[in-house]
Structures are given as structure tokens and as C-alpha cells.
């Protein structure tokens, strides 16, 4: 069992009152770690450390900040296997996925090590011969970064790396289910030579930590990934100090399969999207819409593919799907299945909790396919965050687009077609921040990630990702 400490002001420390909480393996219920439960005073100390460290870090040449990020990137890759195994133990995803996440997390560090050197200002032609106008980009200040449990490495680097590249300092609050990966990444950042106080990591109860971060005017920006409900709360509370805020919130991705699609590729695509991380991703397929003429053929192949998936502990060989994160997640998923069944859906495979043998110690749900799904069902309206694939039909392109857009969410959508013109038309009309055309896993460090509507505001990744941490200053010189 790992007994960890928080990282505040360059020191590894316990909480002020010595309280801790346990981190458990969702596949077995075994305690795998123990971390401090931060007090309000601990969080205030972290904010003070970030505030004190800000002027020196912001004043460094961009190349110096870039050098630290490059060193962090190399250390993450050097420790990829250890980080992946730790991630699987506390989060549950299969080891192959965990290795992929660590590599993906490292890419954000590499990308923003490069972008640190490309924060450009510009000059503006003046309207008077006695003036000169300059526009500067400068770091916003202390950033509060709040990260989720489903990607405990990548969501840390996707926020921290651009903040550091811009010249900001950070107070990081990782999810209480998965703090060990964040702390391990912080140790590597310390080894990379980051000055004391530039990044601080506090672990513990979300409301207590969040309240301090919201109330302290020295925190100038909040970046959050999580539920839409919590995002709305943060927006309301951040208004008191007019804090800048970036939100990556819930999704309910439609996956459109047209009659000219390669059905074998579409089946592989849906499986890759829907069942990655046991369906616990904000951009996974939540509504599978298939054109009527190929519906039966697609469903037959899809059910066969889902039946072949292996469920188990993420460290076991050949496992495709791990556990859900906790008991509440199991109850939510099974509740949506029961609601759909009561309203006329047909369960083609799965639909139940796995309890026999080793499954009985964890939070496992069999991968599930639902047919005859309609818009009255919770699974068609609410984010599932589990291994449940609801399938429905559409008649033509207009019907597909209308059904896909009929959602309060707008994070990601998918289109499978072999028609170039159709792909362009549909992609342009979908009300989503990310569209994967014949691509079930579109996320990359160099492209902007974010949603429309109630799926959030702002972008992470790409050149846009650093903008969230920069202020614009206009300077007028009289000469």
C-alpha cells in the first residue's frame, strides 16, 4: 500500500490535522493507497505558495519554462510502465489502455513545451505619428486545476502543462478516487526541476477544497473537467470574483452509421469508442444511430463483437473491459438499463452485474447492447458512463442530423460513411465541438478539445489550449 503525502510549497507534507483517506482498487475493493485529507488551511497554504511563486515563474524566459516541461516529458516516458500499473490499480482500466493514457498524457507535456516558445504578441498601426501600439500576452496568475478520475494522468497534464507553459502557477486538486497517479506525476515534475510552489497538489474532499479555491481572490482561473452539474455550480460561484473559467463537462455522443459505411469498420469503431475505459469517457458513443437499410446487419455483427469482449481486472492478460469506478456508478448504469427495458427496449447481450468468483469483489457490469431504444428512455437522454450501447434507427440524412442534435450536450459526435460529400455535410451540421469521421478515437494533444452547449466552454489541447491561461494587454506608447 502506498502512503502518500501532498505537495505544497515544494515540500511533501501530511494534512494539518493528520487525517487521511483510503484509495481502493475498483476491481477488488483492496486498499492500494492512503493520502492526506486536506484541511482548509492546507489549501490556503497551497494558494499562498502558488501566489508567492508566480512572479518569478512568470518572469522566466519561455525557454526556461520549456526546458522544465521537456524534462517532465522525458521522465513520464521513462516511468511509463510503473505509472500505467499504478493507474490501473486505482482506476481500473486495462493495462494496455493505461499505457496508452500515459503516452497520451506525455504528449500534452511535449506539445506545450513547444508552445511555450510561441506565445506571441503583436504591434498595431497607430492612428497618430506620435504613438506606438503593442499587444502583449501575459499569464493570468494562479490557476486552480480540478481533474476527474476517468483519465487521472492525461487530465492532469492537459491542464498543468499549458498553465506552466504560459507562466502560470497551479494548485491541483485530483479526484479523490484517483489521487495516486497525480502525486506520482508531481514527483516526476519535482525531479524535472520545477521551482518550489509553482505547482501544488492537495488531496481530499472536493467541496471543502473547492470552497477555498473559489473564495480566494488570488486564484484567478479555474479549469475543471467533470459533470455538467458541478460545472454550472463553479460558474455561478466563480462570478463572485470574476474568475476566468474553463469547463470540460458531460457528453452524450451520437454515433451515426450510414448505409454506405464499411460495416466491419463501423462495428470496430463503436466498440473502440463505447467500451474504452468501460464506457467511462465523456466522448464515448452514447447513442448509436444506424440507417434503417443496414440496421439488422450492423446489429448482428455488433452483438457478436460485444459478446467476445473479456471483462476482468485490468492487470490480467487479454482483458478488454475493467470495472466501473464505484458502487454508485454500477447503480446508475443498471438503473438506466432497467428504465430502458421497462419502456420497451430489448437487451440483446449483457444487461446485468457480474458477481461470480472474482467479479464479486469489484464493480463489474457485463457489456450491454440495447435495441429498440427511443427518446423517452434515460439512456437516450442522460450520460451513462458505463458499458451500455443503445441502438436505434434513422431513415435519412436529415433524420440522422435532427436526432443527433436533439441533446443538451455537444461534446463529441461520430459519423461513419464512405461518401466524402456526405461526411462534409453532416460534420458541418452536427452541433458538437468534436466530430470523428470514420475515426472513433479523435483526441490528440495538438487539436482543440471541448464542447458546445452544456458540454462546456473553452478548449484544451492545440494552440487554443494555452490561450485559456493568458491575458491580453494593450500598451500605447507616446513618443
From TrEMBL:
Pfam families: Aldedh
Any one Gene Ontology BP term: gamma-aminobutyric acid catabolic process
Cited PROSITE patterns: ALDEHYDE_DEHYDR_CYS
Active site: 248, 282
Domain Aldehyde dehydrogenase: 12-475
Superkingdom of source: Bacteria
Record's keyword terms, sorted: Oxidoreductase
GO MF, one annotated term: succinate-semialdehyde dehydrogenase (NAD+) activity
NCBIfam families in the cross-refs: SSADH
Sequence similarity: Belongs to the aldehyde dehydrogenase family.
Name of the protein in question: Aldehyde dehydrogenase
Organism: Calditerricola satsumensis
Amino acid at each position: 500500500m502506498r502512503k502518500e503525502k501532498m505537495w505544497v510549497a515544494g515540500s511533501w507534507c501530511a494534512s494539518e490535522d493528520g487525517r487521511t483517506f483510503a484509495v481502493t482498487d475498483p476491481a477488488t475493493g483492496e486498499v492500494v493507497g492512503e493520502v492526506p485529507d486536506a484541511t482548509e488551511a492546507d489549501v490556503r497554504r497551497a494558494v499562498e505558495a502558488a501566489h508567492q511563486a508566480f512572479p518569478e515563474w512568470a518572469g522566466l524566459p519561455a525557454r526556461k519554462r520549456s526546458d522544465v516541461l521537456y524534462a517532465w516529458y522525458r521522465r513520464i516516458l521513462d516511468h511509463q510502465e510503473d505509472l500505467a500499473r499504478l493507474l490501473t490499480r486505482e482506476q481500473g482500466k486495462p493495462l494496455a489502455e493505461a499505457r496508452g493514457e500515459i503516452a497520451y498524457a506525455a504528449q500534452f507535456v511535449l506539445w506545450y513545451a513547444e508552445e511555450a516558445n510561441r506565445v506571441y504578441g503583436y504591434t498595431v498601426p497607430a492612428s497618430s505619428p506620435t504613438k506606438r501600439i503593442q499587444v502583449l500576452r501575459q499569464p493570468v496568475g494562479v490557476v486552480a486545476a480540478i481533474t476527474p478520475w476517468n483519465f487521472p494522468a492525461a487530465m492532469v497534464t492537459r491542464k498543468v502543462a499549458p498553465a506552466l507553459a504560459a507562466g502560470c502557477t497551479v494548485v491541483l486538486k485530483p479526484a479523490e478516487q484517483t489521487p495516486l497517479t497525480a502525486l506520482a506525476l508531481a514527483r516526476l515534475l519535482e525531479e524535472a526541476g520545477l521551482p518550489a510552489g509553482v505547482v501544488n497538489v492537495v488531496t481530499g474532499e472536493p467541496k471543502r477544497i473547492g470552497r477555498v479555491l473559489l473564495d480566494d481572490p488570488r486564484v484567478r482561473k479555474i479549469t475543471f473537467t467533470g459533470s455538467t452539474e458541478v460545472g454550472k455550480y463553479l460558474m455561478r460561484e466563480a462570478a463572485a470574483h470574476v474568475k476566468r473559467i474553463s469547463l470540460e463537462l458531460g457528453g452524450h455522443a451520437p454515433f451515426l452509421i450510414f448505409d454506405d459505411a464499411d460495416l466491419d469498420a463501423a462495428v470496430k469503431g463503436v466498440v473502440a469508442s463505447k467500451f474504452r475505459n468501460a464506457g467511462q469517457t465523456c466522448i464515448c458513443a452514447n447513442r448509436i444511430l444506424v440507417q434503417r437499410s443496414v440496421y439488422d446487419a450492423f446489429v448482428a455483427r455488433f452483438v457478436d463483437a460485444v459478446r467476445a469482449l473479456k471483462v476482468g481486472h485490468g492487470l490480467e492478460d487479454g482483458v478488454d473491459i475493467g470495472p466501473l469506478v464505484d458502487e454508485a456508478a454500477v447503480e446508475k448504469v443498471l438503473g438506466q438499463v432497467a428504465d430502458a427495458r421497462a419502456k420497451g427496449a430489448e437487451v440483446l447481450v449483457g444487461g446485468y452485474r457480474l458477481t461470480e468468483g472474482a467479479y464479486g469483489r469489484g464493480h463489474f457490469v457485463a457489456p450491454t447492447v440495447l435495441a429498440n431504444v427511443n427518446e423517452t428512455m434515460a439512456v437516450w437522454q442522460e450520460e451513462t458512463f458505463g458499458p451500455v450501447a443503445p441502438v436505434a434507427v434513422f431513415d435519412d440524412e436529415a433524420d440522422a442530423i435532427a436526432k443527433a442534435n436533439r441533446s443538451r450536450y455537444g461534446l463529441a459526435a461520430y459519423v461513419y460513411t464512405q461518401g466524402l460529400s456526405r461526411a462534409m455535410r453532416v460534420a458541418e451540421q452536427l452541433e458538437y465541438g468534436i466530430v470523428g469521421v470514420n475515426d472513433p478515437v479523435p483526441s490528440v494533444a495538438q487539436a482543440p478539445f471541448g464542447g458546445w452547449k452544456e458540454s462546456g466552454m473553452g478548449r484544451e489541447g492545440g494552440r487554443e489550449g494555452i490561450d485559456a491561461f493568458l491575458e491580453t494587454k494593450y500598451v500605447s506608447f507616446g513618443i
